[in-house]
Design a protein that fits this description.
By secondary structure, the protein is mainly α. The chain is built from 5 helices and no strands.
Length: 174
């Protein structure tokens, strides 16, 4: 069962990584279009700044789950590397527990942000008047995806406790 859950989390993270991987070149093309229209055609569409900012938000937040799965987030493990295996394992488990709780709070808070924008019909202050619920939705979805992959890592670590504390296991005292 755990193997299947991990495989699903891997697939979700990979899909989010692929989606966000396409946002950077799309942003670049949007800027090229804006520059072309401004300096060659002399009719700037004035959309590149706003929409590229929304794409940058989407790239950052939707890419968090993929970055987590790839081990790309900042890790400070200079002390943990020196711990004995048992202490390193429990420190890792505790950090996953804290990360799961923190990402859950981020999911909850970002949901409230999206719901508020939806209820109030908030729009950008630019002439385009983009409904803010759409770019904010990428923040919420990104946090949900991050929560899922962190929670799966926590569950995987918890499932290892039985194996690792068995007689002869690396965490067994005796």
């Amino acid at each position: 069962f755990m193997g299947r859950v991990i495989a699903i989390a891997e697939k979700i993270a990979l899909i989010s990584g692929r989606v966000t991987g396409w946002l950077a070149p799309i942003m670049m093309l949007l800027f090229v279009f804006e520059v072309f229209m401004r300096y060659i055609v002399h009719r700037p569409p004035m959309v590149a700044d706003e929409f590229s900012a929304y794409m940058l938000v989407a790239l950052a937040y939707l890419g968090m789950a993929y970055t987590w799965r790839q081990g790309g987030h900042v890790r400070i493990n200079i002390l943990v590397m020196r711990f004995p295996p048992r202490a390193a394992f429990w420190t890792h488990l505790f950090s996953l527990l804290v990360a799961t709780g923190f990402t859950y709070m981020l999911v909850h808070i970002s949901y409230q942000m999206v719901a508020y924008s939806f209820e109030r019909g908030l729009k950008s202050s630019t002439w385009i008047l983009t409904p803010l619920v759409w770019p904010q939705l990428t923040v919420f979805i990104g946090f949900v995806l991050l929560f899922l992959v962190v929670a799966v890592d926590l569950l995987a670590a918890i499932s290892k406790i039985r194996h690792m504390t068995a007689p002869g296991g690396p965490l067994n005292d005796g």
